[in-house]
Design goal:
By secondary structure, this protein is of the alpha+beta class. It has helices spanning 3-21, 29-41, 70-79, 110-113, 173-178, 205-209; strands at 47-49, 57-60, 83-90, 101-108, 116-117, 129-131, 134-143, 147-149, 152-164, 189-198, 201-204.
């Protein structure tokens, strides 16, 4: 085999190998999986928001505020051992009836202190949250073809994930009922997100909006 032909074959093989490697900007399942996992790795993990901004707190037993299912969440956290519960009363807001209202007072247990992380609640007021595992992307199921939107190229990605190193309390049935996101602590779950194409590769929309941090 002459030298020129050998060099041509080597060059072709090298070019094919480089083409096969692709780049971080390509719309591929592997790139999308890496982008979603990068976002998960930058979060505080699998966390659930505490039902109040501080401890202890009281919740009316019945006919009270049911905002964001807080009574169910507080009861579930108590069942899991993260909160204590005791009989209590709350002042009546009725100007014609000042009879105290039956309530439950919830406090943070020593066990709960081990899992409480400041600002991990995920709401705009940065309430604390209980964290008991890490999110892991299992696979990317499918995605939309990248399209331009508001000056950026984006793709909606459907993926399967699970919670690894899950604390036992995340698997308590009452916790899974009150906080559906904990389903992934016992079985694989599905979700979707939007990824944004950047000069550094694909990025989760939340990371993109925060400047990559």
């Amino acid at each position: 085999m002459n030298t020129r032909l050998t060099l041509s074959i080597v060059s072709a093989v090298t070019l094919l190998a480089l083409t096969g490697c692709g780049s971080k900007q390509d719309a591929t399942k592997s790139n999308f999986k890496a982008a979603i996992q990068d976002y998960f790795d930058k979060t505080k993990g699998a966390c659930v928001m505490a039902p109040a901004k501080s401890f202890p707190f009281k919740i009316e037993k019945k006919d009270g505020l049911r905002f964001m299912r807080n009574p169910e969440k507080a009861a579930a956290l108590a069942k899991a051992g993260l909160l204590s519960e005791a009989e209590a009363e709350m002042p009546s807001q009725n100007p014609w009836n000042k009879t105290p209202i039956p309530a439950t007072e919830y406090g943070l247990t020593e066990f709960g202190k081990k899992f409480l992380i400041k600002g991990a609640g995920g709401n705009i007021e940065n309430w604390d949250g209980f964290c008991g595992g890490k999110f892991k992307v299992v696979e990317v199921d499918n995605f939309t073809q990248p399209a331009d939107m508001f000056g950026s190229k984006v793709s909606q990605v459907n993926y399967t994930y699970e919670i690894v190193d899950a604390a036992d309390w995340t698997k308590v049935p009452e916790m899974r009922a009150a906080y559906p996101q904990l389903k992934a602590a016992s079985e694989k779950a599905r979700d979707k997100t939007v990824l944004v194409a950047t000069s550094e590769g694909w990025m989760h929309e939340r990371l993109f909006k925060s400047g990559g941090n």
